[in-house]
User: What shape does this take?
Amino acid sequence: MDIIVRSPNWIGDCIMCLPALRALKYSFPDSNIFLVTKNYLKDIFLNINEIENIITIPNRLNLKNIYLVSRKLKKFKFDFGVLFTNSFNSALLFRVSGIKKLFGYKKDFRGFLLYKGVKYPENSKHHTFFYIDLIKKISEKKIGENYPDALVINQDEQAKVKLLLVNQGINLSKPMIGVSPSAAYGSAKEWLPERFKELIIKINENRPNVQIIFFGSKKENFKILRILDGIKSNIFNLAGKLSLRESIVSISLCSFFLSNDSGLMHIASSLQVPLIAIFGPTIPVKTAPLNNKAIILHHKVKCWPCKYRDCPVDHKCMNAIKVEEVFEEVINFIDNEYKVRI
Assistant: This one.
């Protein structure tokens, strides 16, 4: 049996759906799983044994693109589909592609398009279980919950990325701190740029042998340049210079990672890189890194939690996290907790 699965639309959610993909293969061991994902997300799913094939679709799905993609999917003659997305359009695409047995959560008025619609859960469980619970409902088996969220990197791509980093001036024999100061969702999830700047200056002054590597997209580069203005020593800004896959492999080589609640945080967590995660308006219990080497910095404030992309007031949740607090955890990582070599 061939099963077609629609991936989520955010990097972090794609990482959090990996255990469910593996649970799906466990539930239907003789199946071939085909994954439909947006172009910019395909790098997350490379080398994953449970996936037979990756089918990419445009990053924006208007009616014209739905028609064109449906013609492509019809050729496969899929009959069984799983939606990890909640949108009406994702269900419409699979139905017009001829997929009759379509499973997903009843959301966005799409229940009538589903073969089996599952009630949308309202609970405080980690978001990973949002996807696993859907597979449980589909399989109607006792499948457990402990499936890995690990990304898979092969030796060839690691060797290529090591060469790329060396060509950027990075010394692979020295410790590397990966930093992701942005969040695609919006500035509400971003620790204050001036505090990132102050933190980087303190790390440079106190641990001058540590290399600090900034990650982000081309669009996020201007924020990073503001943080790094006037700071030159031991700093490497790779924002906009790497593909998503190259970023994944590069992060795997870091001694540890510092990030907001973001897609790159989930990548570092999946790769089991020691991690400091800064949380603001979101709920850590739902999206925290599932990595026993992770430390979460978060302070509840009166207006927490919220769903604003940009804080309309004074960003209390992020203002509550002080530079000294983060710096202490960074130094603990370097000197003691994980014995990063300096």
Observations:
- DSSP finds 13 helices and twelve strands in the chain.
- The mean pLDDT is 93.
